Amino acid sequence: MQKEGLIYQKEQELKEFAQKYNLKINPKYTFRYWAWLIVNYGGRCICDSKRTHCPCEFVLDELKSKGFCFCKFFMTEEYYNEFVEFYKKRGKRIKKKEAPV
């Protein structure tokens, strides 16, 4: 499969996962950007090379205990709101990163 197809496939997988578990994503990223990173990382977690895929097997436990996954890509709604509020209080604008493809 071409790289573009792999990125699209991973993007859909991430969207379905977020929807299934009613999750938010880090407002700094888009699903496409994160999918692009994962594909360029060989399908592995981009934050911990010992994790063989994303979403990894630890994500749901991490969300339950901390409100976010190790990479801070997936977030609970509560943590997402805190994250956004943190930026607002400091007068910072959240800039989304876009995939170059």
Quick gist of this model?
The chain is mainly α and 101 residues long. It has one domain (3-89).
Q: Could you name the key traits of this structure?
A:
two-stranded antiparallel sheet, mainly alpha, globular, about 100 residues
What does this structure look like?
The chain is mostly helical. The protein has one domain (3-89). It contains 4 helices and 2 strands. Strands 1-2 form a two-stranded antiparallel ribbon. Helix 1 packs across helix 2. It starts with a helix and ends in a 12-residue tail after the last helix. The model has no long low-confidence stretch (mean pLDDT 93).
Q: What topology emerges from the helices and strands here?
A:
Layout lengths: L2 H18 L3 E2 L5 H10 L18 H8 L7 E2 L1 H13 L12
Helix pairs in contact: 1-2
Estimated radius of gyration? 14 Å
Number of DSSP helical runs: 4
Which structural class is indicated by helix and strand composition?
mainly alpha
Helix content: 40-55%
Q: Please report the total strand number as a whole number.
A: 2
